[in-house]
From TrEMBL:
Catalytic activity: L-homoserine + acetyl-CoA = O-acetyl-L-homoserine + CoA
Documented EC number(s): 2.3.1.31
Claim: Repressor is one of the keywords in the record: no
Gene Ontology annotations for the cellular component aspect, listed alphabetically: cytoplasm
This protein's name: Homoserine O-acetyltransferase
Main location as per UniProt: cytoplasm
Function: Transfers an acetyl group from acetyl-CoA to L-homoserine, forming acetyl-L-homoserine.
Organism of origin: Adlercreutzia muris
Taxonomic lineage from the root: Bacteria, Bacillati, Actinomycetota, Coriobacteriia, Eggerthellales
Length: 315
């Protein structure tokens, strides 16, 4: 089914060129169904790239998805044109009285700072608190996952001796979870971070459960037992070239960077990277939208965020 986004958004042309069903606003208005409303809080500096990557993953869903883009006002975005932000992004003050079926909070390249040192931390905390009553389910990515699991459950992030960087094999800690329905016993996912959240800290919390882990990269997916919060500590949305772009950028800055692990054939950066994570990345987003948003969100959007705690807790 289609994803509904503004006709002029740069991602629209990119997705249509990939034969992804993007519905125009005019056509969507004439369909007699209620779309899922998903709010995307984009904290990444490369906002157009990130919004395109995530919209691609949201496109293969069981119902029409209407995405609204959210930015923080307490941080000055220097890598995205002000015109793009003014045209396509909203602010928290503009949506605080609205309800959403899903909320996605992206990563951000700030994991080496303490949470409280991040200039938009107070605003992010306000949004995460608001999500408890205004979003049916929230999907946190990478640093966004570290921030969310710390804010909601007090689980700390810990510094790594070196950057966790590459594409790593993972296994399922809870095979019965609908979130990973269709996953192979071993699957791959990209990571790019200087900090981690440890499995032992998650397992010690009665309101959290592990879903997928890696012997090399550590925790990949965890969730709350009430299925309101999902935490993905890697970057399943990454394109084939994203890790390469990060590596080339850091080398150009004079940083001593190891090659991204399990990424270049023969560890040769002159060769094209091999994408080994696309199918499981798509499944992860599709399963979240289907089983934890579409199947359980109230039809009356004004009730999104209300919890009955029964069906969700069993998953």
């Amino acid at each position: 089914m289609p994803i509904r986004i503004p006709d002029a958004l740069p991602a629209t042309a990119a997705l249509e060129s990939e034969n992804i069903f993007v519905m125009t606003e005019h056509r969507a208005m004439h369909q007699d169904i209620r779309p899922l409303r998903v709010l995307l809080l984009n904290l990444m500096p490369t906002k157009i790239t990130t919004e395109t990557q995530i919209l691609r993953k949201l496109s293969n869903t069981p119902i029409q998805v209407e995405v609204e883009l959210l930015q923080t006002v307490s941080h000055d975005a220097k890598n995205t044109a002000a015109e793009h932000l003014e045209t396509f992004y909203t602010t928290f003050d503009e949506v605080r009285d609205e309800h959403f079926d899903g909320l996605i909070i992206t990563g951000a390249p700030v994991e080496q700072l303490d949470f409280e040192e991040v200039d938009y931390w107070d605003e992010l905390c306000e949004i995460m608190e608001w999500s408890k009553t205004h979003a049916h389910s929230t999907f946190h990515i990478c640093w966004g996952a570290q921030a969310g699991i710390y804010y909601h459950y007090g689980v700390p992030k810990r510094a790594l001796p070196e950057k966790m960087f590459g594409v790593f094999p993972h296994t399922l800690a809870k095979r019965t979870s609908p979130l990973v329905r269709g996953f192979d016993d071993e699957f791959f996912a990209p990571h790019s971070r200087f900090t981690e959240v440890r499995a032992a800290d998650i397992e010690a919390h009665p309101d959290l459960e592990l879903i997928a882990v890696s012997d090399e990269a550590g925790v990949y997916v965890a969730k709350s037992t009430d299925s309101q919060n999902f935490f993905v500590f890697g970057h399943p949305e990454y394109d084939r070239e994203t890790l390469k772009a990060e590596y080339d950028r850091d080398v150009a800055r004079g940083m001593a960077m190891a090659l991204p692990a399990h990424y270049y054939p023969g560890d040769d950066p002159a060769r094209e990277p091999v994408a080994t994570w696309f199918s499981h990345a798509q499944l992860l987003y599709t399963n979240w939208l289907n089983y934890y948003v579409y199947q359980t969100t109230p039809y009356d959007i004004s009730r999104a965020g209300e919890r009955d705690g029964e069906e969700e807790a069993s998953w």
